[in-house]
Amino acid sequence: MHMTRLLDNAAIRADFPVASKMLYLDSAHQTPLGVTAKLAIEDFLAESFEMAGPKPKWLARVEHVRGGLASFIGASPDEIAYTKNTSEGLNIAANAIDFNAGDNVLLIEGDHPNNAYTWLNLRRKGVEVRFVKLSGEVANAQTFAPYVDCKTRAISLSHVTFHAGQRHDIRSIGQLCKKKALYLVVDAMQSVGVLPLDVKDLGISILAAGCHKGLLVPQGLGFLYVNSSLESLEPVYLATAGLANPPADFIARPDDVTLRAGAGRFELGNFNLPGIHALGATLGLLENIGVDNIEAHVLRLGDRLIEHLDDLRIRLVGPRDATERAHIYTMALSPDWLAYFSENNVRVSPERDGIRISFGIFNNETDVDAVADLIRKRL
Ligand SMILES: Cc1ncc(COP(=O)(O)O)c(C=O)c1O
Which Gene3D superfamilies match (predicted)? Predict the structure, then answer.
C-alpha cells in the first residue's frame, strides 16, 4: 500500500490522538504514544494483573521482537542486544573495544553530546578523541580520511543529526572503515524507523539507538547491534544474562564465566518488558507502512516546508538536498518564537541555530501549511 494513502487515511492519524489536539512537530524529541503502542502495553499490564506474569510467554516475545528488530535493520537476531537507550549502547561498545593508550577515535564536531562523552571518557585509558569539522553539509569518507592515521581505531557519528537534520553518508564512511580496518560506530537514534537502514549494506560495525522516536515506543528501551564478526569484543559488565551456561540453581560458578555467543553477551538482567511488547506492535505498524514510504513521506513534507520557508525568506539551517536530509528541519528563527509556537498549541523544539520542526508518520501536508501560516501571521 502506498504511504500517501496510508497517511491520508484517518486511521493512521487516529493512531496518534495527540495529532488532533495540537500541531505536533517534535518527533525528533519524542514521538507521542500511539494507540498501537498503548494497546500492546495494556495487554502486558492485563497479563501482569490477571495472572501475575506469564514469564515464559513474555520471554518468548522478547526473542520474537529481537528477531523483528534484527530483520528491520538487516541484521540477524544474535547480533542484537536490548539496552535502555542510545548512550548505554554506545558506552557498551566503546568500552568493549580493546583500545591501547595512544589510539584515537574520530568524531564529528558538534555531534550529539551523548556520543562525544562516551568516547571522551576513554581518555582515562589514554585514548585520543579527535573532533573533525564538517566541510560540506554532511560527513562522508572524505571528511574523515585526512584525520585517519595508524593509531585510528574507530569512527563514531550520528546517522541523522538531531540539531540540523543532516543525513551523513554512512555508506562511504563504511567503505573507508573497511579499507582501513576501523570500527564504524553509528548512533541511529534519529534515523531508525524513519530511513531504511541496512547495517550490512552500510558497513556498520556497531549501532546504538533508543526506541522512543522513529520506533514509536515510550522512553527506556534501546538496542545495540554488534556485527557477528566482532565476537572478540568483551563486555565490561557481566550478569547471568551474558553467560553461555547460566547456572540453573542460581549459584554462581567461578570456574565457568564463558560468555554467551552473540550480542546477548552484552545484556544485563531483566528486560524492559512493557517497552518490548510495545515495540513488537509498533514494528508491525512500521513494516505495514514500509520504511521507504516513511522516508519518502517525511521528505515530501520537508520539500513543502522548504518551499514555504523560501517564500517567507526564512533560512533553513540544514541541508536542502533531499539526499542529505530526512525528517528534521531547523528554521533560523530567534528563540522568542518558541513562546509564540507554544501559545498557538504548536510543539517544536529550540535548537542551537534556530527552531526545529521534525516530522512523524502522522504528520501531513495540512500540518506543514498550518505552521507556515502561523509564521506568516507573526512576520
Ligand atoms: C542523535 C541522538 N543520539 C542520542 C540521543 C539521546 O540519547 P539517549 O537515547 O541515550 O537518551 C538523541 C536524542 O534524544 C539523539 O538525537
Answer: Aspartate Aminotransferase, domain 1, Type I PLP-dependent aspartate aminotransferase-like (Major domain)
